[in-house]
Amino acid sequence: QVQLVESGGGLVQPGGSLRLSCAASGSIFNINVMGWYRQAPGKQRELVAHITNGGSTNYADSVKGRFTISRDGAQNKAYLQMNSLKPEDTAVYFCNAVIRPVHSGTYYNYWGQGTQVTVSS
Questions:
Q1: Cβ–Cβ under 8 Å, residues 51 and 80
Q2: What is the pLDDT at residue 75?
Q3: pLDDT at 74 (0 to 100)
Q4: Is 56 exposed, middle or buried (0-12, 13-18, 19+ CB in 10 A)?
């Protein structure tokens, strides 16, 4: 069984910073892409950033220059450093990973349970 667990959300004032963490655990053979998505009330889930196992990154235009995604391949963890936060960044943030489980020849898409980020004064 593969699981993704996020941590690090919370309430922060505009202009502040938060760091989200995602830990993948279980019978993992290989992780391809790890990423962060977010979903605000009444809106569709959207990509925030993702990082490949080769270190290539991609960001939504709305977070470029403010957010940084990183990854610890040895520990199957991903991080999202969020700086200069704005009220419009308020959402539930979900970790996502494309993982090949042990004893499987197929990669599957996994999601964490989500962590709330609220940016408000």
A1: no
A2: 83
A3: 83
A4: exposed
